[in-house]
Amino acid sequence: EMRELVFDPVVNQVLGLIDGQLFQAQQCAAIFLVGGFGSSPYLHKRVQQEFENRVPLIRYPPRPDLAVVRGAVYHGLTHQPIQARVARRWYGVDTTRLYKAGDPVEKKYMQDGKYRVRDGFSVFVRPGQSISVNECISKKYVTHKYPEPLSSPLYVYNGEDQPDFVDSPGVQKLCDFTIPLPHMPGAAPGTPVVFTLKMYFGLTELKAEAEFQNGEIISTLCQFQ
User: Fold this and answer.
1) How far is 194 from 141, CA to CA, in rounded Å?
2) Could you tell me the strand order of the sheet in which 193-200 lies?
3) Using CA atoms, how far apart are residues 51 and 208, in angstroms rounded to an integer?
4) Same-domain pairing of 71 and 107
């Protein structure tokens, strides 16, 4: 009874987190339990029972409580930088796209002779995607709000399937990017402006750049909420 009340809720949470990581990684060769709780024989038994058919090797070292400390010291001594990061969630921006059957009617509108919908979730990063530190992910867009600055909120989603819209259930706004548009001689308000939005996710901070047709590049950092 004591085990069910005290340990099982925490162990079940750990199992859920491991299951989420395995879903994102698709393939996993080994699980190592480290840290103070990692030395628990009961935790090791439950992890073994739950994942032995999906992961060939599940172990904990002789001193799992020291593994985290040793890793931190080793990292500090070797000064080896992080080469890549693996995304755990969907990352995307707000965009318009062509209307398709089944889309919410309230998001439907006409532009350039075509029906479109607002608030589409345009994916930049998918769960499980490996991103190098200096890797740039880019997409081309058009704004019809010249000379207003580009306002490009970044949204995240933890679900399995790609969300259709930025206001779909479970989608959250992570931060805002605001990029001023360059001066374009002769351009009237509302003139379509084509630009390439570049995102850098592998850094210690989120960075965005907008490259315009005249070759000008304007960059900004994420403003967290």
Assistant:
1) 6
2) 137-143, 193-200, 207-212, 217-221
3) 39
4) no
Sign of the Cα torsion 132, 219, 215, 119 reads positive
pLDDT in tens, 23-68: 766 678 899 888 878 888 888 899 999 999 999 999 887 777 777 7
Tokens 């004591």 belong to residue: 2
Same domain, 65 and 139: no
Annotate the chain with three-state secondary structure. CHHHHHCHHHHHHHHHHHHHHHHHHCCCCEEECCCCHHHCHHHHHHHHHHHCCCCCEEECCCCHHHHHHHHHHHHHHHCCCCCEEECCCEEEEEEEEECCCCCCHHHEEEECCEEEEEEEEEEEECCCCEEECCCCEEEEEEECCCCCCEECCEEEECCCCCCCECCCCCCEEEEECEECCCCCCCCCCCCCEEEEEEEECCCCCCEEEEEECCCCEEEEECEEC
8 Å CB contact between 156 and 220: no
Percent of the chain scoring above 90 in pLDDT: 44
pLDDT digits (tens, 9 = 90+) for 78-130: 666 677 888 888 999 999 999 999 999 999 999 889 999 999 999 999 998 99
Q: Which amino acid is at 52?
A: E
Q: How many domains does the chain have?
A: 2
In a shared domain, residues 121 and 72: no
Last residue of a domain, one of 80, 115, 130: 80
pTM of the model: 0.64
Range of the domain at 96: 86-224
